[in-house]
Amino acid sequence: MFELSRRDLLAATAGLAVPMAAFGQDKFPSRPITLICPWPPGGSSDAVVRAFGESAAKVLGVPVLVENRPGVGGTLGATAMVSAKPDGYTLTQLPLGIYRLPHMQKMAFDPVKDLTHIVCLTGYTFGIAATMDAPFKTLKEMVEWARANPGKLTYGHTGTGTTPHLAFEEFAFKAGFKTQDVPFKGSAEIMQAILGGHIPVMSGTTEFAPHVRAGKLRLLATLGRNRNKAFADVPTVRESGWDTVTESPFGIGGPKGMEPAVVKTLHDAFRKTLEDPKVLEALDKFYQPVIYMGSDEYTRYAQATFEAERATITRLGMLRKD
C-alpha cells in the first residue's frame, strides 16, 4: 500500500488551502448594495445620488440600488444606519443636517459615534429666490419690505432644521426681520409651491436654476462664501451686507464598525465616480462643485462640524432642553 508521510500530506494539501478558504468567504461586494437617498424623488439630491450610484456600480461590479427615504430633515438615512449591518451593503447620503438636528431634538443616532464616514464627494449651492411678481427685486428690497411688514414674509424650505431653513433664519436674525416659514419634504415640493404662487420666496438648493434661467423666478442672492460662477451677476448674502455664509459638503456613509477593507473598496469606487463624465454632468446641472475628502479627513470634518453646529444652534436659541 502506498502511504504518504505527514510532510508529504501537508505539501500535497497546501495548494488546496487558499482556494478552499476563498470558497468559504464572500468577496465584497457579491450582491447589490442599497444606497439611501434621504430626500424625495425628483429633486437635485435624488438626481445626483442616483448618478453616483450608477457610476459606482460600474466600478464595484454589482447594482447600487437607490432607495428614497424622505422626511425629518434628511436624517432618515443616518437613522437607518443604527440598525443596519456594518457589511457595506447598506449606505446613505450624509447631508449636513445630520450634524445639526441632534442638537435640536432627540434623534436615534449620534452622527460621530454611529456612522462610518466613507467619502465626501460634493456639496450644495444655496440661494434665495423669489417669484417675479414679489414686491421686491433685490435682497435689500426684500429686507426693507419684511421690516415694514413684520411677520408677513413667507418663505419655503426643505424642513425644520435643514441648512436652507437655518441659513435663512440666521440671515433674517442678522438683518432684523421676522418671517413665516413653511417646511416642505424636499426641493421638488418647494418648486411646485413657489411656481404655483403659494409662497413668494424660497431658500434652497439650485432646483431654482432652470426657472431663473427661464425668467420664472428671480435669484436674489446665493449663500456661499463667493459668488457662484453660474450666477456671476448675483451677489452673495454677505456681499449684500449680512455676514451669513452657508456651504454644505456631503458624501457617503455607512454603519459604525465597518471593516477597513470594505470601507476602502467603497471609498475607491465612489472616488472613481468623480472622473465619470455623466457624474460631472449631473453636478454641473445642479451647480454642485466637487468636494473630495477621504475617509480620515471626512471623519475629522464630521467631528468638527458636529461641534460647530451646536454653537450655531445655541446662538439661534434652538438648542434642545433635555
Provide the fold topology:
Layout: H1 6-23, E1 33-37, H2 44-60, E2 64-68, H3 76-83, E3 90-94, E4 115-124, E5 127-131, H4 139-148, E6 153-157, H5 163-175, E7 179-183, H6 187-195, E8 201-204, H7 209-213, E9 217-222, E10 248-255, H8 260-273, H9 277-285, E11 290-293, H10 295-315
Parallel strand pairs: 1-2, 1-3, 6-7, 6-8
Antiparallel strand pairs: 3-10, 4-10, 4-11, 5-8, 5-9
Helix pairs in contact: 2-8, 2-9
How would you characterize this protein structure?
- With 322 residues, this protein is an alpha/beta fold.
- It folds into 2 domains: 33-124 and 247-315, Bordetella uptake gene, domain 1 (D-Maltodextrin-Binding Protein, domain 2, 3-Layer(aba) Sandwich), CATH 3.40.190.150; 127-231, Periplasmic binding protein-like II (D-Maltodextrin-Binding Protein, domain 2).
- 39% of the residues lie in helices and 19% in strands.
- The protein has 10 helices and 11 strands.
- A 6-stranded mixed sheet has the order 2-1-3-10-4-11.
- Strand 1, helix 2 (44-60) and strand 2 form a beta-alpha-beta unit.
- The protein is globular, with a radius of gyration of 24 Å.
- The model is unreliable at 1-24 (pLDDT under 50).
Secondary structure tally, helices: 10
Computed over alpha carbons, the radius of gyration is 24 Å
Number of extended strands: 11
Instruction: Give a short account of the largest sheet.
Output: 6 strands, mixed
Q: What is the succession of H and E elements?
A: HEHEHEEEHEHEHEHEEHHEH
Return the CATH architecture of the largest domain: 3-Layer(aba) Sandwich
Provide the helix percentage.
25-40%
Into which percentage range does the β-strand content fall? 15-25%
Low-confidence stretches: 1-24
Lateral strand order in the biggest sheet: 2-1-3-10-4-11
Q: Count structural domains.
A: 2
- CATH hierarchy class name of the largest domain: Alpha Beta
**What is CATH's topology name of the largest domain?**
D-Maltodextrin-Binding Protein, domain 2
Mean pLDDT score, rounded? 90
| Quaternary assembly | single chain
Ends: how far apart? 80 Å
- Give the helix/strand class: alpha/beta
Q: Which homologous superfamily in CATH is the superfamily of the largest domain?
A: Bordetella uptake gene, domain 1
Q: Give the CA-based shape.
A: globular
